[in-house]
Predict the structure.
Amino acid sequence: MKAGIYIRVSTDKELQESSLEYQEACCSDFIKGNNFELYNTYKDVFTGTKTGKYNKGPGYKNLINDAIEGKIDVIIAKDLSRISRNTFELEKLRDLILSGKIHLITLEGAVDSTKGNIHYLSTYILIYSEEARMIRVRVEQSKKTMAKNGLFIGSIAPYGYYCVKGKLYVRNDESPKIIQYIFDSFVSGKSAESIAKELTENNIATPSQLSNKKGASSKWQASTIRKILKNEHYIGNLVQGKTKSINSTNKSRVENSNYIIVENTHEAIISKEQFNLVKDIINSRKSSSKVSRKTHLLSNLIYCETCGKAISLRNKDYICSGRLKYGKKMCCTEKIKQIDLLNLLTENIIDKIDNSDSDFLLNYIEERLNKNISKYKSTLNNLHMKKNKLENRKKEALNMHLDGCISRDKYNIVVNESDNDINDTLKNIHSIESMLSVKDKIDLSRDFDLLKSRIIKSVSLNPQILNYFIKRIEITNLGVPKIYYRF
C-alpha cells in the first residue's frame, strides 16, 4: 500500500521542529515495519482549530487531494489530534474513509480503518468539539468580565485611538481630526459616499492602513464611514460584544443581543450632542429613503382597486405602491392605517368562523390537526433516534476509557454531556407523546363547538390563517378595504 505521512505542529517555534522530526521518524518506522511504500510526507505548522470552517494548511490540502486522486492508499499519523481538532474536517475525513477512498492509521491505536477499526473516530470528534466549546466558554467569560470592568477587549483599537493594557487613549496624529471632520461633514449634509470619496482623494490613511493590516486598502469605503458615525466609542463609551462567532470552528460573526455598554471609560473625540444629532439625521434619512421592498403580513394578498398595484406598508400605513412611486397623478387611492386594517381583519375572520359553514370549518380544523400530528410524529421519531445515538456514544466512550485510549476526565465529559442531552430529549419525547394522546381522543363531530370556540379565542393574524380564509383584499380610492373570502 502507498502511504502518506501527515505531521503537524501548532506553532513555528524552534522547540516544535523536533516534534515534527519525531512524528516523521515514528511514522516512517511504522511504514517500514508493515512493508508499506512511502509516497510522500505532508507537513503543516498551524493550530488545529483556528483556521475557519475547514483545515487550510497546504500540507493537509495536498494530502487529501492525493488521497482522492488515488495516489496514496493510507494516511499515517502519530495520533488523531495531529490531523486536526476541527470537527468539520474530521467529519469530512471520516466520510472519505467510509466511502473507501482512503484508509487512516494512527500510531496510538485508536483508528485503523484497514482492520475496520474506525468506531472511535466519532467519539473523538465529540471530545474535540467539547474541548473547543469549553475553551471558548472560558475565553468568552474572561472577555465579558474585562468588558464589564471598562477594558477594551478588541484586537485593534478604534480609528483615532490606541490601546494600552485595555485602556483607550486618543492618538497624537491626524486621525482624531479625521473623526471630527467625518462627523462635521455628515451634519453639514454630505453623504457617507461623498465623505469616503474626499478622504480617498486627499490620501488620508484608512483605518486598516493605520493599524498596519497586511494588504490594507488605501480606499475609504462608505460602509466604514457609517460604522464610525454609529460608534459610541467616540463619545467615551465602550460598547463591546455586539457580534459573536457561531462556534469554535466557524468564525462567521452573528449579532449578539447581550452586548455590554460601559460609559465614560476614556476620552471622547466627539460630543454626545453631536453624536445624537448624527443619529437623528441617520434615522430621518432612513424614513425618507426609497420604498422598502421587504414583505409584510399582507404581502401578495392586498392590492389597490383603482390601479391594481400591490399595497405597501410604510410608516405603519398601507398605501398603494403606484402612488408611492409616481404620486397622486398615478393613483389617488387613500392610505389606511395598519392597526385599523389588522383589527378589522381580526374581527371579520372571527365573525366568519363563528357563522361559517360547518363543513368548511371542519375541513380547516381537520387539516390543522393532521398537519400537527404528522409534524409531531416525525419529531418524535427523530428524538428517539437521537436518544439511541446518545446512548451508543456513552458505550463507545466507556470502551475507549477501558482500552486506555481516553482519560477518565475526557470520559466524564462525554458521559455528562450525553446524559444532559438524553434528559432533555426524554422531556421532549414525553411532552410530544402527551400531546399526541390528547389528539387521539378528539372526535371532530362531537367536539366541533369546543374546537370552534378555542379557535375564535386564539385567532392571531399570521400568513397561514390569512391565506386559508382570505383570497384577496382590495383598497378602494377612499381607503376602504374590500375583503374577498375563500368561502
Observations:
- Confidence is low (pLDDT under 50) at residues 48-55, 287-293.
